[in-house]
Amino acid sequence: MENRQWVSTALVIALMVSVVAGQGILYPIESESRAVHYLDGIWNFRLANESDSDVGHREGWYRQELRKTGQTIQMPVPASYNDITEDKAVRDHVGVVWYDRTFYVPRTWSSPNMKIWLRFGGVHYAADVFVNGELVVRHTGGHIPFQSEVTSILQYGRKNLISVAVNNILTHITVPQGSLEKLQTDSGPKIVQYYKFDFFNYAGIHRSVVLYTTPSVYIDDISVNTDINEDTGVIKYNVSAGGEPTNHSTVSVSLLDRDENYVIRDVMGNEGNLRVPQAKLWWPYLMDPDPAYLYTLEVRLSTKDEVLEDVYRLPVGIRKLGWGNSSVTINGKPIYIRGFGRHEDSEIRGKGHDFPLITRDYNLIKWLGANAYRTSHYPYSEEIMDFADREGIMIIDECPGVDIGSYGFSAELLEAHKTALTRLHQRDKNRPSVVMWSVANEALTSLQGASDYFHAIADHMKVLESSRPITMAINALYDMDLVGQFMDVISFNRYNAWYSNSGRTDTITNNVKEEAKNWHKKYNKPVLMTEYGGDTIAGLHLSPEYIWSEEYQAKLLSKHFEAFDELRSERFFIGEMIWNFADFNTAQTYVRAGGNKKGIFTRNRQPKASALLVRKRYWAIAEELDNVTPPNDLSEYVYKNHLKHLKTVTEEISDVALISV
């Protein structure tokens, strides 16, 4: 099919580009030397024919405004396009869609000493980007930023045209994987996208589109690693320059504290170590009275030519991770993860960037007393990650390798998976909130070929970095799994009393304890439960508790809590993560009533009964482990002598029982 070929070609080119990379993908910021202009807003939009996705490329829709090629509609950017309209053909479209808009570039940006960059925060899944009719970048991978220099292509002081072809097709060699099939319908055969993962394959320009400037010789990338030596913090840094740096180029580095006071000034050299006496450490939320302390690394690149000095400021958190056979530590203290898996998902916007939603989510995370989450099952937006750095929320950073092996373990898939990990690491390597890398979710780790495949994946990740542990969320049974041997932390997903023994909450506690112990016994590594839970229809109340009711979800979680508390005394169990933070959309299926309902919050972020239960537990753990004072609103006032009254009632019941006997 032409659709399949379009994605495969793009993937091959993207892989070739990644080989020569090493190029930075620093977040666009304003500084004395850099300007940023957002192209977010309303764009023009149209679908390409599903049976002929190449039509726009072939007919050159990018050479003119899209409205001149046929009927268009308005489409917000950033946003998924699927839920914006009432048209089922838009929601369920398979293949290529087109966006375009016009914009102006100031004449003042036309300078031989300046470069202009076009950057996309994320487009799902593959994208061809044209500016003024010229192809400027082709990218595959729906969750990672990409950019291109467009200095020579722009028209300064005049109108410019940007056109983007977006393809949502997933194949056997994309990450994640999928397949295309023909379905006979009443109106003839149609192409249908199938995938094994349990979330909707939202598509579109999901994150911001930005034009930004740099000097012609510029700071291309900054790498930071931190350490602690008694009360001294150590920041190891490396700065790479882009453009045409010469022997006359110099790099200087300074460090500022939270109040913008200089701690260290003007250290010369593109790499080195900054030693910070009495350093303020980056601590997770609730593990310290002053969590998430961030310094600012100020980097300056200058030349003796006429080129403007480039300035970039990077937030830096000083912390040190460690791990062994039974624990993961931060700054020498064992961590106990209490959190959940999540999704970038909301009504109307789909996976589109949404600052109000991001802010609401972090308020709820902190309200719950949680301290971590996993970016299931793909990299989240840079702005979401910024919040984690600033708020002290620990992140298990996951690449989009979900259900890997569903269509085999090919060499092409392995290279695409490595590329996804490389890009994820390149983007998030400097973030103090990232405490683990997750290389996959629910891969088919018991199949032949899984061992060699994930041995190569683990080796690749450890070459990229050795300062963070790696993990993956495993759903194979412990005695059938072949890949945990390559991980630093064993993470497992299991749905007791939901997918197995449905309705039988009396099977949960012992099953969870036994499985966690067996994982540790097999691999002698820290163990974390990354998924457990059950679907709940908000407002459905059934007593005694019954499957799908709010009471059942609360009971199911409570029985897991019993297991976790016993496992914590075993010293190898390092955390619990509910599936899911909030309800989210999925592909249409008879087992999903308007999406996955396992959230402790509804899709519009209202609490179910289980959220209140989880809040009491997480704050109780924080009080025990982190010595914090829980909020005073965890329990409602009932009766001034309610404890004495309850004791009296209990004694009376016991007396009645004795008399009855």
Span between N and C termini? Answer: 78 Å
- Note poorly predicted spans: 1-22, 652-661
Which class of secondary structure composition applies to the elements?
Answer: alpha+beta
CATH superfamily of the largest domain: Glycosidases
Q: Architecture of the largest domain in CATH?
A: Alpha-Beta Barrel
Tally of individual domains: 3
* CATH C-level category of the largest domain: Alpha Beta
How many helix segments?
11
Based on CA atoms alone, the radius of gyration comes out at 26 Å
Compute the number of strand runs.
32
DSSP strand content: 25-35%
Shape: globular
Q: Can you tell me the CATH topology of the largest domain? A: TIM Barrel
Strand order of the largest sheet: 25-26-27-28-29-30-31-32
Largest β-sheet summary: 8 strands, parallel, barrel
Tell me, rounded to a whole number, the average pLDDT. 92
Q: Level of helix content?
A: 10-25%
Description:
Helices cover 24% and strands 29% of the residues. It has 661 residues and is of the alpha+beta class. It folds into three domains: 2-168 and 203-215, Sandwich (Jelly Rolls), CATH 2.60.120.260; 218-320, Immunoglobulin-like (Sandwich), CATH 2.60.40.10; 322-626, TIM Barrel (Alpha-Beta Barrel), CATH 3.20.20. The strands form eight sheets. Strands 25-26-27-28-29-30-31-32 form an eight-stranded parallel beta barrel, surrounded by five helices. A six-stranded antiparallel beta sheet has the order 3-2-4-10-7-8, covered by helices on one side. Strands 1-14-5-9 form a four-stranded antiparallel beta sheet, with no helix packed on it. α6 (411-428) links the parallel β27 (394-398) and β28. α6 runs parallel beside α7. The longest helix is centred in the last third of the chain and has 19 residues, at 550-568. The chain is globular and about 75 Å long. Mean pLDDT is 92; it is low at 1-22 and 652-661.
